[in-house]
Amino acid sequence: MGKTLSSGIVIATRNRLDDIVNCLKSLEKQTTQPDELIIIDSSDTPLNKQKKFNTTFSQKNFNTVKLTYKHTARGAAYQRNVGIKLSSSEIIHFFDDDVILEPTYLEKMNKVFQNNPHYAGGMGNIENIPKKLKTWWVMLRKLFLLQMIYSSGKFTWSGMPTHPYGTNKFKNIEALGGCLMAFRSWALKENMFDEKLTNYSYMEDCDLSRRVSYKHPLFFNPGAKLKHLESPIAREKIEDNRATYIKNYSYLFFKNFYPKNKFKIIFYVWSVIGLFAEALITRNRKALKGYAKGLKNFYLKK
To answer: Rounded mean pLDDT of 205-210?
Structure first.
């Protein structure tokens, strides 16, 4: 089996003091501690100037872990790249600041990497996803090839990711989720996060995992579990959120899928229609305005 692989954690955060503190408390309880823990912060008031953070992010609580804190400019993709450059670990875990890990999460994930050298990356399972989904919503999302959970973990023909969250079978996948993905360091030397995806950087996880999975296998480990609380703090308004989402989706489709198969433009258009259809059915006027704004910004290069 060879020597134990070193592992590190990179967390990009912004203006979420309570969330990052709760996340850190769950990391304290891990049965397998990381070798390093790196916080890349873009908060308006730097976290290292706040007592509550310093009390938790301390060598007293992580006595065997190398701790690194850095305050940077805003941008999830940019911040994660800063973390990669600061890391010296062989396995790098990326978590959102609003996750709570079960105590065995790192142990179960690192074991897969240790025993399966062919995997370039992988992710665990989100345990607090909805237990039941509305039938009409599932049918609409399948029909229009949109993002899904309880699914295969593959990308649809339109370039939308699906995720196996909620399923219980270990499997090879193509799309990793940004709140709980991990990669071998050599895979990240070949592929960094795309910093053209600014601010909240929607779908930066899909972009990176798609580029890696074209060449190397990725895995889903259902036994490694965490809760994603999806903090409402520091999130974009619905209109801006949907504008960024569809703009980034369009950019990544033409970057990662269209060059390999131009015929897929049909499915891209079909999924865009599906996003508008979903917003119409749910009477979400802000989402409709956001999608229209995002497409305008993308095609006019604003």
So the answer is: 95
Q: Are residues 88 and 194 in the same domain?
A: yes
Confidence (pLDDT) at 86: 97
Global confidence as pTM: 0.94
Overall number of domains in the chain = 2
Q: Are residues 19 and 116 in the same domain?
A: yes
Same-domain check for residues 67 and 107: yes
Give the chain's end-to-end CA distance (angstroms, integer): 51
Average pLDDT, the chain: 94
Domain hosting 273: range is 238-299
Contact yes or no for 295/247 (Cβ under 8 A): yes
Q: What CATH number does residue 82 fall under?
A: 3.90.550.10
Q: How many other C-beta atoms are found inside a 10 Å radius of the C-beta of residue 230?
A: 13
Q: Please name the amino acid found at residue 197.
A: L
Other CB atoms within a 10 A radius of the CB of residue 122 amount to 27
CA 256 remoteness from chain centre:
17
Convert the pLDDT of each residue in 227-257 to its tens digit: 999 777 666 788 999 999 999 999 999 999 9
Same domain, 51 and 187: yes
The Cα–Cα gap between 295 and 302 comes to 10
**CA separation (Å) from 144 to 82, 135, 241, 269, 290?**
36, 14, 20, 10, 19
Are residues 62 and 121 both part of a single domain? yes
Are residue 189 and residue 114 in the same domain, yes or no? yes
Spell out the residues 6+ positions from residue 184 whose beta carbon is closer than 8 angstroms to its own. 90, 91, 92, 113, 119, 120, 121
Tell me, yes or no, whether 34 and 60 share the same domain.
yes
Q: What is the DSSP letter of 299?
A: H
* Relative orientation angle of helices 265-281 and 285-299, to the nearest 10 degrees: 150
